[in-house]
Amino acid sequence: MRRILLTIEYDGTNYAGWQRQANALTVQEVLEDRLSRLTKARVTLHGASRTDAGVHALGQSAHFDTPSNIPADKFCYAVNTMLPADIRVCASREVPDTFHARFSTKGKRYRYLMHAAPHAGALDRLTHAHVIYPLDTARMHREAQALVGTHDFAAFAASGSVVRDTVRTIYSAEVTREGAEVRLTVEGSGFLYNMVRIIAGTLIGVGSGKLEEGAFARAIASGDRLDLGVTAPANGLTLMKVFYDPKDMEMGDAR
Predict the structure, then answer these.
(1) Neighbours of 121 (CB within 10 A)
(2) Best label site of 17, 45, 69, 229, fewest CB within 10 Å?
(3) SS3 call for 15
(4) What's the predicted TM-score (pTM) here?
(5) What number of other Cβ atoms are within 10 A of residue 69's Cβ?
(6) Residue 152 is a catalytic residue
(7) Looking at residue 161, what is its pLDDT?
(8) Where are the beta strands (DSSP E) in 155-196?
(9) Which residues are CB-neighbours of 143 under 8 A, at least 6 positions away?
(10) CA 10 – CA 18 distance, rounded (Å)
(11) Model confidence pLDDT, tens digit, residues 118-170
(12) Cα–Cα distance between 108 and 55 in angstroms, integer?
């Protein structure tokens, strides 16, 4: 058996998220089906992030074990001929059996895109959340700096989250603008369920003047979800990259 790591890009519009579900089509299900056909054996994928319905990815990571003798770097080429146009495997490589796509992660980078204009865009409607209010991006960027560091982000988890440890480290958070596009980029050790969308929704509130500055600091101190803004729509969110220690991915002389 070999362990193969995939880097995956997908448009999440037509899927009920990454994780396989009983009654809805997901990215994991489609990939597992095509890989199983390719290798002629049942394939189970282990993903780094369980993205929600409508969320996109440019750098999702997932691994699977296989007895197939297909060269590791050729899996991406072979499976892409079988996939729908909204899912693509960008790279494939062999990794040690001690490596795990989810549990070996060292951090993740997410991007949230907003189309800030009176009218929604026609071409970016699937990848940008439409915001009709004028946004003060300098104010939003200042607010985002309160996230940086190691904090208890209990207030930033969606209701129903069962994670016990809500402490995370945010390495950087930036808000920039080009024309009508407002971009939030946030990088951290890990994120709670809906955390980035809650961050984005709060920043929209601060940028539009509907929320006072200091919302993040107040929520971190109180642990109260009510100190934050609404959860922003899923379509603006993209998982950009999953970070690993290169040493964890080295095959070594044994292989």
Answers:
(1) 14
(2) 69
(3) coil
(4) 0.95
(5) 7
(6) no
(7) 67
(8) 167-178, 181-188
(9) 202, 203, 206, 213, 214, 215, 216
(10) 10
(11) 999 999 999 999 999 999 999 999 999 999 999 999 999 987 666 789 999 99
(12) 15
